[in-house]
TrEMBL record, chains A, B:
PANTHER family (alphabetical): CONSERVED PROTEIN (PTHR39515), HTH-TYPE TRANSCRIPTIONAL REGULATOR RV0880 (PTHR39515:SF2)
Protein name: MarR family transcriptional regulator
Keywords, sorted A to Z: DNA-binding, Transcription, Transcription regulation
Source organism phylogeny: Bacteria, Bacillati, Actinomycetota, Actinomycetes, Micromonosporales
InterPro entries according to UniProt: HTH-type_Bedaq_tolerance, HTH_MarR-typ, Tscrpt_reg_MarR-type_CS, WH-like_DNA-bd_sf, WH_DNA-bd_sf
Domain of life: Bacteria
Amino acid sequence: MASNEQTAALLRDAINRLTRRLRQTRPVGELTQSQFSALTSLDLAGALTPRELAEAERVQPPTMTRIVNRLEERGLVQRLPHPTDRRQVVLSTTESGRSVLAANRRAREAWLGGQVATLSAEEQETLRRAAHIVDRISRA
Amino acid sequence: MASNEQTAALLRDAINRLTRRLRQTRPVGELTQSQFSALTSLDLAGALTPRELAEAERVQPPTMTRIVNRLEERGLVQRLPHPTDRRQVVLSTTESGRSVLAANRRAREAWLGGQVATLSAEEQETLRRAAHIVDRISRA
DNA sequence: CTAAGCTCATTAGTTAAGCTAACGATTGTG
DNA sequence: CACAATCGTTAGCTTAACTAATGAGCTTAG
């Protein structure tokens, strides 16, 4: 029987390897991992303050400021004043942001989707289950 | 039925979230993810040239030069001349490197191991299976 | 009802990690 | 033996993470 630590090590190593592998497949000029992830979260949520988005991405607020800066420079995100609190800012995706996001999603999933396609139905189901378990762990 | 792309997206998102979560648990002064991973690979292999280690870590040679520099500054790794080819260098872990590695491994797995412990035996098995599948994909 | 303190976003400055291009030393080859 | 290839490194750029500090705006306690 594998110990909790052994399972943890297996999981961590597998995740590290896949993370590095995925980084290699990013085409130049496309969104970085952080930009892509932040844009996705924002698009799903509809509108968030920088702090809320930072918390969703598990990053400190200054880090999110920078990511949002780059996205705003490219016109993918907009900063609007908060209706009642003038300290705050409300972030939302632009039309252009949503289409860039969709294009990036397709490109990103091409490689990994191709790999998934080579797996048996049972293996694919294992991956989906594992993804949900990992999500639960990450929230803890 | 989930499409290959949906499964890929689930997997990628789960991995991103856990990666960021794990980064948060790194104590200051400890090895970074890259350092830890490189040191682990080197320790497993015994001795490698910088290029071989870069390939194992799926990183370009200059990136590995920097990582090795930091590890060497801390005395965790040593560079020795190649026996026959004076262009090459042979890297190996030091005694100190191996003990730092072991301590780091324990610290890193404490949090994740704790999370794994809260899962059912079936869920743990799902994670182990998924880790193996992901490893196979990453090698492709 | 205003002064003090809190919260929000941002800026500044550090560290780390990734990349490509270019270089010096060395080896192999035509 | 000259020329090409290889190896590791350096240099220079970008991205991303952090903490500390700042300024603007809100909230509240006296």
